[in-house]
Amino acid sequence: MKKILFAAIALSLFGLNQAQAQDDENTTDFKKWQVRLRGVGVIPDESADISTIGGNVAISNSFIPELDFTYYFTKHIAAELILGTTKHDVHTTASDISAIGGPSSTNVDLGSVWLLPPTLTVQYHFYPGKVFRPYVGAGVNYTIFYSVDEGSTVKDVSYDNAFGYAFQGGFDLMLNDTFFINVDCKKIFLKTDVSVDASNLAPGLSIPAKVDINPLLLGFGVGMKF
Q1: Structural domains of the chain, with CATH
Q2: Of the candidates 107, 80, 112, 110, which has an alpha carbon nearest to the alpha carbon of residue 96?
Q3: Scanning 58, 86, 173, 212, which has the fewest C-beta atoms within 10 Å of its C-beta?
Q4: How far apart are the first and last CA of the chain?
């Protein structure tokens, strides 16, 4: 499914690029690089399939600074790489731990984890006017999980690094030819396999889970073209 999606994205962008080729090859009045600094709200849309104890998962929201770079291949086609890292608290909800003497519906603290999710998108930029410049984009994400703190309940928690895909929409409000204000929204579709070592609660107890994180990233910031 992902291969088909990426193929469709690539064909669509190729078509847009071809349609603009005549205009772009004769157009040199654009700056090829831009950098932005944004504040980004990270809002997971989480769900999980948790073996052994059942229930679901809850992942906290976060607010982070984020730096991104964009390169324009043509006036309309660009690629953006975002760089940022975020920390989230994690716990299960409505889990059944009655088999080890606990309640049949409770939350299990799984501590916290840091995510490093570099995301590369290919964008199409519109120019309806000199000030308002919207864009759309799609691309890929690779999330690295690190600095896991398992909390005080279980012995250990591990997360598999994972690829995902992303969709994007936003706009720039030009203050002049160099500086601008940016509003951006991304949806990242991300899944990971999680393994919880709860052998401190019962001998040999391991709790595997498949977790959908699927965060929404809402950003606001300033940028500079050069």
Answers
A1: 2-19+44-225 (2.40.160.20)
A2: 107
A3: 173
A4: 38
